[in-house]
Amino acid sequence: MLKAALLIFLFALTTAASLRCAAQTDITWHDANVFEIEGRGWTDTESPYDRLPTRAKGVVPEGVWGLGKHSAGLCVRFQTNARSVSVRWDVINDTLAMPHMPATGVSGVDLYRRTESGAWEFVQNGRPTGKINNHMSANLPASGGAQTECLLYLPLYNGVSKLEIGTAPGSVITKAAARPEAKRLPIVYYGTSIAQGGCASRPGMAHVAILGRMLDRPMINLGFSGSGKMEPEVAKFIAELDPALFVIDCLWNIGGITGAELSAKVATLVDTIRETHPNTPILFVGQSVVHISQAPSALEKLQETAVKQLREKGIKQLYTCPGKNLLGTDGDGTVDGVHPNDLGMRRQAEALAPVLERLLRSGS
């Protein structure tokens, strides 16, 4: 009896595996690089899924270069009439998760689709199981043959070495139509681990990604964990980009510094950007805090002073945003007292969105 049960169990496993293999053979796979990789500031990169150009190697600090291999903020933008979409991907690092951040955020992918109303809606996330051969499938609502616009967000704290999108044979999948001209220019968001996405549960829940959907505009995520320090070498590359708005959110990585030293950092960064972008708005974000009684932090006060000094010298389109309300008022917005959880990420995006919208209007 036991032997018969074991044989039935093994048969069921074999049948399920066969069905999975058969299902995967009924998929036409497409290299994701043939579609639009949105959020990429440069095309001259070592990999299509890097965030910094090849020529930054040996110029920017080593930590920044390494983190530039992480695909945070990058998303594949495509459209399809398929009823389901599959994704398979390989990552560059064996470590799939961190003690305070799940594998779904560190190394997973995240699929969104645009609804008939024009809003973005979560479809499915891809949960990594190893360095290679990760796979996900997701159903899309029936579209009557019409094209559905999709965003596939890439891992926040890992890099991608291979990425393919699969659809049923005969279905159509192409690059998404160009964004409206008024929303084509990206927002550059430069900062710390919080900007990179720590500690969102999945890539689409990083606040920079949420802002992209709220504002319906491309976002270039230049968050570098522990390394958002306003270095001149990094500033030179940031100044090469042509966004509608620069957001600087670096205070959590700048500690043990005097007011004069911070003023020098802010001035050098602004001067470097202003050489190529004399009128583009620049927003300096204050330091987020768990308890609002701690706001504004000493560093935020120093940053406010530094920006004020530059304004008094006649430099225009410089703005600040207080950190007081970025995480809410109940203390529930973080994983560890610093890095936002999904609730904190959502609150941070909701606090910043109206500020960014106002500055986008001022710069247009």
Explain what this protein looks like in three dimensions.
There is one protein chain. The chain has 364 residues and is α/β, with parallel strands linked by helices. It has two domains: 29-175, Sandwich (Jelly Rolls); 181-363, SGNH hydrolase (Rossmann fold). It is 30% helix and 22% strand. It is built from nine helices and 15 strands. It has helices spanning 2-25, 62-67, 103-106, 193-196, 207-215, 232-238, 259-276, 298-312, 342-363; strands spanning 28-31, 36-38, 75-80, 84-91, 109-114, 120-126, 134-139, 148-153, 160-167, 173-175, 187-191, 219-223, 245-249, 282-285, 318-321. The strands form three sheets. Strands 2, 3, 5, 6, 8 and 10 form a six-stranded antiparallel β-sheet that branches. A five-stranded parallel β-sheet has the order 12-11-13-14-15, with helices on both faces. A four-stranded antiparallel β-sheet has the order 1-9-4-7, with no helix packed on it. A hairpin with a 5-residue loop joins β5 (109-114) and β6 (120-126). α5 crosses α9 (342-363), α6 runs parallel beside α7 (259-276) and α7 (259-276) packs across α8 (298-312). The longest helix has 24 residues, at 2-25. It is globular, with a radius of gyration of 22 Å. Residues 5-23 have low confidence and may be disordered.
